[in-house]
Amino acid sequence: MLIFLLRRLIQACVVMAIISLISFAIQDKLGDPVQQMVGMSVSVEERNALREELGLNDSLLTQYGRFLQNALQGDLGTSYYYKEPVLDVIFDKVPATLELAFCAILLVVLIATPLGVLAAINPKHWVSRILMVITSIGLSIPIFIVAILMMYLFSIEWNLAPSFGRGQTTEVFGLWHSGLFNQDGLSHLLLPSLSLAIALMPIFTRLIRAEMMEVLQSEYIRFAWSKGLSSNRIYFIHALKNTMLPIITIGGIQAGTLVAYTILTETIFQWPGMGFLFMDAVSRVDTPLISAYLIVVGGMFVVTNTIVDLIYGLVNPTVRLASHGL
Amino acid sequence: MNLLSVSHLHVNFQVKQHSLPALIDVSFTLNRGERIAIVGESGAGKSVLGFSIVNLISKPGYIKSGSVKLDNKELTKMNLRQLQEVRGKRIAMIFQDPMMTLNPVLTIGQQLVETIRSHTKINYKDARNITIEKLHNVQISSPEKRFDQYPHELSGGMRQRVIIASVLLLNPDIIIADEPTTALDVTIQAEILQLLLAICRDNGVALVLISHDLGVVSKVAERTLVMYAGQIVEEGPTLEIINDPQHPYTQGLLNALPQMTLPGQRLNQIKGSMPSLTERPTGCAFHPRCPYATDKCRQESPSFIYSGVSSVACFMIEDMIDETDRDEDEQL
């Protein structure tokens, strides 16, 4: 277990070093940050002085070296726009994004699992057939259309939930602004998390169905039937646990997709999270913020996948993390 | 009265628009404590027959007609709930490959205890005690330790022992063993077979042994059914069938066994292969491979007749008996 975590840590360092290099390499292709920072009235001399001060005239490699040196001390730079350390800016927005992603994942698990199982148990039932049609349509509709449609229906036509912002938040332990503990926050969470969930639900429903159908064909399920066990026990104890093994792995990979979708969802719903911040940073050519975002997301990716692997090890008895080290 | 009686059982497989026969007019009986064997090549329908007894044929197979009676209760007409009471408790099954039969993510203990608890109202502790006792009975060392282990921590032979223990949990009347030793090492095969035989003898359990191995069958079964292309072609006491096979197919099977007395000889295999469900020959299904086939065999299917040794479905035997009858008539 310890060896496993240590290996993961080394992997994470490599991954993030590569990410930072890539994000640095594209920096000077993104536009001119000075132009975004100063007004029209600033003279060329002053612009050049600012450029020199920011170190933008040095070679890319020098800049990267300087960045790495600071990064190792926990300083990923200062945002051009906010004039604050980028990590502070990002961590200020982390709770909003994490809560959104968490609720979306919860919705996916709670809805996709029973639907997939149901469709696998009765594949020829008309409900299952309709479900398969809906999910294949769902797979091909981009998230922004779903989000805008939901916004139109739920908040404009029926006025059931607010369409933008995060609403009221409560401070938890003095460091986390949460929208989960009051009604206003929850109602604001509804549409963004639902549209994010809808983006991932079709693929998971289909995956669970396909996997479960295969598991139900296996010898040990037949043996379970021959023992005279109840159908519920066979479906939900014997089959579901085996079904979830590959799904957990895929879920870990899909965490990356989720990050990509939060950028879209947050932009559409004006959700004050990391994705929204990132889009702003891109349009303002706030390069330190962009790099820092990519590194933080890379780190989150590694952490999620480590957690997923740990869960996998718990569910699958044939995997022993300690001895294999993975 | 017979414990189990299967009569005129027809099982078909629905493949697209076609309904293909997998079992044709199969009838046999099993008495309490009796051990019978079903033999034949791969694809003869042995396993289908085994599974159709407890109505557990894999899709798209289904019972078309006929009856399976356990203590005079019709099994083919039962709903799932009634069948669940029979499965495991009165008729238990042992599958071919012990590596595939146990659920990989549940412990041995969980898989055995659940069997008891789904059929009887009993608390976990008592169920655990019964389980450990049965594991002990099948000669598994340190059963308390095995109880908490997962299947992948056990060897193949050990797993088959666990499965045998699991079918014993509820003291069933019948065990259907579908090639229980085929997937095992030769040395372990004999041990498992001995164990199975001892357990059936000691507890008075009836056994239906499905096998293609006549050596195995001769050690275990009192009576043997020989199957070919979904039909029973010969039935009789195991020793008689092995010493004096009547049906050309049974003769072929026995000739194909390696002979210790004639080393260095090529094996006499039966020419050709078992027809698939879709290309079933007319008349007697065995005629394309039969050395004695006549025109009659190609057109009509023979019915069962008692040859004096066993019951056989073959025109050759029919003619032979007719002739002896005629001879006897003439002598009179």
Automatic annotation (TrEMBL), chain A:
Subcellular location, in the record's words? Cell membrane
Coiled-coil residue spans: none
All copies of the ABC transmembrane type-1 domain together span: 94-312
* Bilayer-spanning residue ranges: 9-27, 96-118, 130-154, 189-208, 243-264, 290-315
> Which UniProt key words apply to this protein?
Cell membrane, Membrane, Transmembrane, Transmembrane helix, Transport
Q: Per the annotation, which location comes first and is thus the protein's main one?
A: membrane
Task: Report which superkingdom the organism of origin falls in.
Answer: Bacteria
Return the Pfam families for the record.
Answer: BPD_transp_1 (PF00528), BPD_transp_1_N (PF19300)
Specify the protein's topology with respect to the membrane: Multi-pass membrane protein
Query: Family assignment?
Result: Belongs to the binding-protein-dependent transport system permease family.
What is the protein name for this chain?
A: ABC transporter permease
UniProtKB/TrEMBL annotation, chain B:
Organism of origin is: Marinomonas vulgaris
In short, the EC number is 7.4.2.9
Instruction: Indicate what this protein is called per its UniProt record.
Output: ABC-type dipeptide transporter
Locations listed in the record: Cell inner membrane
Major localization listed first in the record, in broad terms: membrane
Enzymatic reactions:
a dipeptide(out) + ATP + H2O = a dipeptide(in) + ADP + phosphate + H(+)
Domain (ABC transporter): give its ranges.
Answer: 6-254
Q: Which GO terms describe its molecular function?
A: ATP binding
Q: Supply the InterPro entries for this chain.
A: AAA+_ATPase, ABC_Ni/Peptide_Import, ABC_transporter-like_ATP-bd, ABC_transporter-like_CS, Oligopep_ABC_C, P-loop_NTPase
- For this UniProt record, give its keywords in alphabetical order, as a comma-separated list: ATP-binding, Cell membrane, Membrane, Nucleotide-binding, Transport
- Which PANTHER family does the entry link to? DIPEPTIDE TRANSPORT ATP-BINDING PROTEIN DPPD, OLIGOPEPTIDE TRANSPORT ATP-BINDING PROTEIN APPD
Question: Does the entry feature the keyword Manganese, yes or no?
Answer: no
Bilayer topology term: Peripheral membrane protein
The record's section on CDD domains has:
ABC_NikE_OppD_transporters (cd03257)
The opening ranks of the lineage are: Bacteria, Pseudomonadati, Pseudomonadota, Gammaproteobacteria, Oceanospirillales
Which family, according to UniProt?
Belongs to the ABC transporter superfamily.
Q: Is ATP-binding found in the keyword set?
A: yes
Top-level taxon: Bacteria
